[in-house]
Amino acid sequence: MSFEPEAIEAARKTFAGPVAFLKSAPTLEFIPEPTVNEVAFAGRSNVGKSSLLNALTGRNSLARTSNTPGRTQELNFFDVGNPLAFRLVDMPGYGFAKAPKDMVRKWRFMVNDFLRGRDVLKRALVLIDARHGIKDVDRDILEMLDKAAVSYRMVLTKADKIKATELADVTEATVAEARKRPAAHPEILVTSSETGLGIPELRAAVMEAIG
Ligand SMILES: Nc1nc2c(ncn2[C@@H]2O[C@H](COP(=O)(O)OP(=O)(O)OP(=O)(O)O)[C@@H](O)[C@H]2O)c(=O)[nH]1
Ligand SMILES: [Mg+2]
């Protein structure tokens, strides 16, 4: 996680500025015109996508979070900066077994089609629960992104929930896998929305992706 202090500070300033919910798209017909660069949050249900978006922007209830997996059911777009600098996209989760099958399918197709087909998408952040490491359901997304050559970066979430030694092991294993995957950034980020661990670096990583 090596970012220059200047990059961290510039990112902090950007995220401390205006951030506004733009719109919620239940299907791809409703997504905004691709006029500005985007970074999207992907990952399993309940991994902490919406919480991380809130932590990044320092706004507790910008994106809706919940204990119950399957909270986010649409693509949610957030405008950063005024004038508009870039957009963040919060997405429904993968692999939520308890949701009705056709809804799970619908979300998966929508998320996949969005990630594969969005010119302005500069990078996907693929969130991985630090307690579990990369699971097969995560590998499905990673493979899809590798095949479509969509640049992505893995981000471990909920780092506060495990011991430092376990965190070191899962970090090492995740980095090893990232280095083997063609579209993956070779470095990962380790975060906690609860403690703020890795949040300044994640802000800098978003800015780096936007370019
Ligand atoms: N301890 C801890 N809990 C977290 C962290 N991030 C998220 N959570 C909790 O995990 C649960 C799920 O968080 P969300 O942000 O709603 O997860 P999501 O990935 O957006 O879930 P879906 O929208 O259902 O796909 C909530 O109860 C959060 O409070 C974290 O860093 N640490
Ligand atoms: Mg969510």
Automatic annotation (TrEMBL):
Record has Nucleotide-binding as a keyword: yes
One Pfam family matching this protein: MMR_HSR1
Residue intervals of the EngB-type G domain: 35-211
Alphabetical list of SUPFAM superfamilies matching this protein: P-loop containing nucleoside triphosphate hydrolases
InterPro entries, per the entry: G_ENGB_dom, GTP-bd, GTP-bd_ribosome_bio_YsxC, P-loop_NTPase, Small_GTP-bd
Known cofactor(s): Mg(2+)
Record flagged with keyword Metal-binding: yes
Entry keyword set: Cell cycle, Cell division, GTP-binding, Magnesium, Metal-binding, Nucleotide-binding, Septation
Protein role: Necessary for normal cell division and for the maintenance of normal septation.
Recorded family membership: Belongs to the TRAFAC class TrmE-Era-EngA-EngB-Septin-like GTPase superfamily. EngB GTPase family.
Protein name, entry field: Probable GTP-binding protein EngB
Species: Sphingomonas psychrolutea
Lineage, top ranks: Bacteria, Pseudomonadati, Pseudomonadota, Alphaproteobacteria, Sphingomonadales
Protein encoded by which gene: engB
